[in-house]
Amino acid sequence: MSAELTPVDWAKRPIVEKYADFTGRAPRAEYWWYCLALIVAFIVVGIVESILGIHHMILYSYGPLSALLWLATIVPSIAVAVRRLHDTNRTGWWVLLPIVPYALAIALAGPAIMAGGMGAGLGIAALFMLVGMLCALLLLVFMVLPSTPGDNRYGPNPYGDRGDAVPAE
User: Which range (46-55, 104-113, 148-157) has the least confidence?
Assistant: First the structure.
């Protein structure tokens, strides 16, 4: 089944077939081809927004098209990340790992900046940002790791009996 999929098939699978499916497993090919397609889509949308002159309309940072693309792809992006973690026999809750330090950093930095400066709160916030970056790096390592061979607690191997590699990987 999976061996016949092209890179385009892998890229559109999280959107078309498994939009909000947080169960099962997603092989590396599905995750990384989807990420590449998403990056290309954001670049194209950014270019179109720049040409039209609408690239800083929302919060002085985003254009309306990129905001719509983000809203349309946030659920499948989280779902494919959770399924990718399942493929490495990890719980999908690992996706939240970088969010906690970033949220703490924002919670500490806001009052520190409002108070007027470079106090201890801002330094601790910077430390939490560093921890968040390290957590994001750990999550990236999990996404790069190969699938667990055979079935695991999240379902059968998406590659079937072929093993752990397909031509698209």
Answer: 104-113
Predicted TM-score of the model (pTM): 0.83
Helix, strand and coil content of the chain, in percent to the nearest 5, comes to: 65, 0, 30
CA distance 128 to 113: 15
pLDDT per residue over 17-41, tens digit each? 999 999 999 999 999 999 999 999 9
Judge whether 92 and 113 are in contact, CB under 8 Å: no
Q: 3-state DSSP call for residue 115?
A: coil
Distances (CA, A) of 140 to 28, 47, 67, 84, 91: 12, 27, 24, 11, 15
Concatenate the DSSP letters of all residues of 31-55 into one string: HHHHHHHHHHHHHHHHHHHHHHT-T
What are the boundaries of each domain within the chain? 1-93, 97-151
d(CA 143, CA 130): 20
Q: What is the pLDDT of residues 58-68, one digit of tens each?
A: 777 788 999 99
Residues 97, 165 contacting (CB under 8 angstroms): no
What confidence tier does 1 reach under pLDDT thresholds 50, 70, 90?
A: very low
